[in-house]
């Protein structure tokens, strides 16, 4: 009955959902394409194998090491990856090309999920992190498809949200065949929501198993050689409300370090042009990555307005600020810059990565800042004391290396269910 009511409400709200999709298509034209896939029609599905769902860009990147290993270890099983956003779709194709099938996940209505599962006929469904939908899980259960929640994370805030609709989600959590959770604290939250104890394992985060490719590091070295001897910092995955803080900080930094370069990488592509205007209004000279030019010594900001190059940008920097944290976004993946040996800065809103950020902070690899003055002071301080910056970066790398191994545990658990 709870799921019936949920499906009824979802159906009644479908016109509003489609109106929102139209609005998003107006702001980002990629949302206007491939609508049939939202209704489980079309898409490139590869039946009879492994189904991975990664909602957007971050989850797709997190899933990449797992997917590459699954392709190696189970070459006889085709892989299809679904997502929800155009940026996630673009990331999947950049990561895997035609090695995997790909489509958008349909809306969470029982007949649409049933249609997708009937077309896919998966041996297993692997959902990345917390992208759970009641009808998706229920229809997998009906079709006897094991469901794995991989690299599972659940913040206190998200757990409270689920508790408010416990009448709906408890059967969904109880139906999961295996939850590979990142930390013991998060495991307790999953148990409180109905996950069965035998179906839950603390494996750690597979994001610790990040290994920057040699080709990426070589290309980053080539870029830096073109930029000359100058200090570089990156503000990555920024959201609306953060860019003005970042630019105000950079205006202060260039007063102390006139040759300093900021790499500014907004989180969402529909914001690229707006952020470019903000940079111009701040009277900072700018080069856009999409234009193909490299920043010269007179340029103060390098706008990363492309997709799929974030690790490349990180590898070119000396200091990293991770966005989504000055506003109540919960932060993004702090391990990417840490794995590259960069000292890391974050705003106070870190609830999506509480355990990881606290590990880095405790090691001296991450510093929290709340405004442009604190941000500018810390960046300029590390520029002026390169040994302190090196020690902070090395501490972050040590944290990453000490917590590796989650990927192998996850792959072994998946193999047992296959």
Structure commentary:
- The protein has 418 residues and is an alpha/beta fold.
- The protein folds into 2 domains: 185 residues, Rossmann fold; 189 residues, Glycogen Phosphorylase B (Rossmann fold, 3-Layer(aba) Sandwich).
- The chain is 48% helix and 14% strand.
- It contains 17 helices and 14 strands.
- The strands form 2 sheets. It has a 7-stranded parallel beta sheet, with helices on both faces.
- The protein is globular.
- The mean pLDDT is 94.
Rg calc: 22 Å
State the CATH topology of the largest domain: Rossmann fold
| Helical run tally | 17
Content-based structural category: alpha/beta
Poorly predicted parts: none
Main sheet, how many strands, which sense, barrel?
A: 7 strands, parallel
E-strand count: 14
Envelope shape:
globular
CATH architecture of the largest domain: 3-Layer(aba) Sandwich
Overview features:
418 residues, alpha/beta, Rossmann fold, seven-stranded parallel beta sheet, 14 strands
Topology:
Blueprint: H1 2-27, E1 50-53, H2 57-73, E2 79-83, H3 86-96, E3 101-104, H4 110-120, E4 124-128, H5 134-142, E5 147-152, H6 156-164, H7 166-174, E6 178-181, H8 184-192, E7 200-202, H9 214-227, E8 232-238, H10 243-256, E9 261-266, H11 272-281, E10 286-288, E11 301-303, H12 310-315, E12 319-322, H13 335-339, E13 344-346, H14 354-362, E14 366-368, H15 372-384, H16 386-402, H17 406-417
Parallel strand pairs: 1-2, 1-4, 2-3, 4-5, 5-6, 6-7, 8-9, 8-12, 9-11, 10-11, 12-13, 13-14
Helix pairs in contact: 2-3, 4-5, 5-7, 10-15
